Amino acid sequence: MNRITVLGATGFIGSAVLKTLARQEIRLRAVARKPAEVPPGPAEVEVVTADLTGRAELAHAVEGSDAVVYLLLGDGGWRAAEEGSAERVNVGVMQDLLDVLGRDDGVRPVVVYGGAASQVGVPQREPLDGSEPDRPETAYDRQKLRAELLLRRATAAGRVRGISLRLPTVFGESTPGGGHDRGVVSAMAARALAGQPITMWHDGTVRRDLVHVDDIADAFAAALAHPDPLSGRHWLLGAGRGDALGDVFRLVSAITSEHTGAPPVEVTSVQAPSHAPVTDFRSVTIDSSAFRAVTGWRPEIPLGEGIHRTIAALARKARP
Q1: Strand partners, 67
Q2: Which residues are CB-neighbours of 270 under 8 A, at least 6 positions away?
Q3: Pairwise CA distance, residues 201 & 117, whole Å
Q4: Residues 6+ apart with CB under 8 A from 224
Q5: What is the pLDDT averaged over residues 122-140?
Q6: How do residues 49-63 score in pLDDT, each as one tens digit?
Q7: In sequence order, what are the residues at sequence separation of 6 or more whose Cβ sits closer than 8 angstroms to the Cβ of residue 121?
Q8: In this structure, are strands 3-7 and 67-70 parallel, antiparallel, or unpaired?
Q9: Bridge-based pairing state of the strands 27-32 and 44-49
């Protein structure tokens, strides 16, 4: 591939993908609403600042692309998905992208989309392996599924080679110039660093499939390297462990104590708010063997190491 364009290149995951791809000898275009920081590496990096909700700006941003990595997220993340502006970003821009990606030379561009494992809705079994019917419960997951279906239809029509990577619970330290992790691990690490108790809306036995952001970035690079066998469907990414959140939060508390020298903060259960989605109380473990078999990818960063790195980075940012 001659030119790979990353949409959402300053986001938490997008900046990690940009950093990983910059290690290759390719032409790389980093597109976001604010200027992306160019990571080190042999890639020839072009930085484009654009509001991709404008179709003309989007068309300019992806012009000449052999592959596009789609990692856009509406303001406020998944919790703000019911707002009209979020739907425009989460669904509308995908439709526009597929409309403007046509190539005169007959080449079908590759589009790698960052989906979500939660698109399946309330898990009916463990582990998830991608064969389950989709019954999304939240506005965010419904929007993610709609965008994925648009990509699948465009692939079936021969316009692009679309690949959807459904992401697990991603965590980790931010890349320089990139967005912050707004997930549960970083949120609870921030509480622990502030000396506040870590709270959870259940008894701690609810499990999540946690994968460090650098491993997720490697998965996007692997998908770009195997477009044809992956094209036309969605693929689940995960570590396959299903970590109990009570154990994870106690580990966060212990590692934070190592960094600060203060006693470990308490991990306690609290009453869940009324707006909490039902999916927050169901366990998720992911079988990503299908994707691994095609690409050879697998997560490399152990949970404890990932949490150490996350807390160390947050502690550095908190220093005056």
Answers
A1: 4, 110
A2: 199, 200, 201
A3: 21
A4: 1, 4, 21, 67, 69, 110, 112
A5: 93
A6: 999 999 999 999 999
A7: 134, 135, 136, 137, 141, 279
A8: parallel
A9: parallel
Residue given tokens 């490399």 in the structure block? 300
Structure tokens at 140: 């965010």
Amino acid identity of residue 288, one-letter, is S
Number of Cβ atoms within 10 Å of the Cβ of 84: 8
Residues forming a β-bridge with 233 = 163
Question: What confidence tier does 102 reach under pLDDT thresholds 50, 70, 90?
Answer: confident
Q: Which residues pair with 69 in a beta bridge?
A: 6, 112
Distances (CA, A) of 307 to 43, 175, 248: 30, 15, 9
Q: Which of these ranges, 95-104, 228-237, 240-249, has the smallest mean pLDDT?
A: 95-104
Structure tokens at 221: 């690079």
pTM: 0.95
Q: How many alpha carbons lie under 13 Å from residue 132 in its C-beta half-sphere?
A: 22
Q: Mean pLDDT across the chain, nearest whole number?
A: 93
